[in-house]
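thread from #wetlab-drylab

HS: before we spend reagent money on co-crystallization trials with FE2/S2 (inorganic) cluster, can we at least see a predicted complex? here's what I'd submit
DV: go for it
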Amino acid sequence: MSTNFKSNESRLMPMIGMAWTYTWLYKLGEYFWQHSGQLQDYVNFVLCEADPRWDQQRMAAQIIKKEHPTADSTTLWLKPPAKWQGFKPGQYVKFECDINGSRVQRCYSLSNSPADFKQTGLISITVKAIPSGKVSNHVKDHLAESELVYLSHAQGEFSYQVASAQKDSTSEQPNDLASHYLFLAGGSGITPIKSMIEQLIEDRTFNHPKITLVYTAQTEADAIYLERLTSLAKSQADFDLHFHASQEHGFLTAKQLSQWIEAPETTSAFICGPSEFMDSMSNGLKKHGLSNEQIQIERFGAAKPAIKSTKGKLTTYFEPTDQTLINKGEQSLLEMAEEAGLNPKYGCRAGICHECKCKRPAGELIDAQTGEAIPHDQAHIQPCVTYAASDLVINEWN
Ligand code: FES
């Protein structure tokens, strides 16, 4: 007996020693990468030179496949690195690529489902090219398979709660009271909604809500994923799809919503699309008895609202770079700063992520989201959704 114990002990000790050493090396590595400094930057530079996928400061993802679901949209299938933490359906990523030597960033919704990611290891984003869109046209015309782009972890609150209930094997019910999920998608607003619907269908062994999707685009040819969604609706009894071609039938009106709301008290609504569409649908749902809490809106990617109070040529003085710019009237502070070559930090470009910041010691500003003047006691300004309403001074640019 004693001989056996000793031999077990002699086998165990090196293993414990190795585990201890590995743990401490791991902690040391973690500490190293979490604390910025010149040495860290240098080591990262060397790693990136050897292989850009080893970048410790940015998450490189490889383009595995590029598709064009409609004439002006592009889907990129990306392989994120192992440290990427996954996503909830409806969330978005900050997407970064290099254009003519400068890094540019935009936020894009993930368009496949977490279940699909689990199975394939790939995520997809779908980008609609807009006229003069710097990044959307670069994605469409220049990014190629096998190239690297950079991602953030998934972000955003536009999602549903049923998935977490399904992890709880004791729960038969979704963890909210909705028995009907009503999705309203306008144009490219379909991308996060497609992700949610595919995941809901994937999880359908549980007591999930009935799904209705009302999808509007100018024509069928402009509707991203219409074929895929139509075939899902044909194969799934509890999923109804209604496509509305606005070129033929006019814009979808709030009044038309009544046909899809059976019981307002047990309906959860999710809206994504152009700003005017979301406002009109949200107001319509409220008229039909839904409360604010029952309506989720994805403001990300919202169209630029019209600014009523722009007074023509105004000057904006950027203290950090000692530059004076002429405001052309239709540009946000962020766009002005970019045009001046200031390279400001940003993320969503829609007033959501709080990545962009500046201070305004003097002058009048308009908040594009509300159309109201921004009070002078508001400490930080979000330049992506802010417009000049008088001559300005801007400082502490982020
Ligand atoms: S870039 Fe996201 S809030 Fe301005």
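DV: Residues 346-349, 351-356, 382, 384 surround FE2/S2 (inorganic) cluster (CB under 6 Å).
HS: ok that's useful, forwarding to the group
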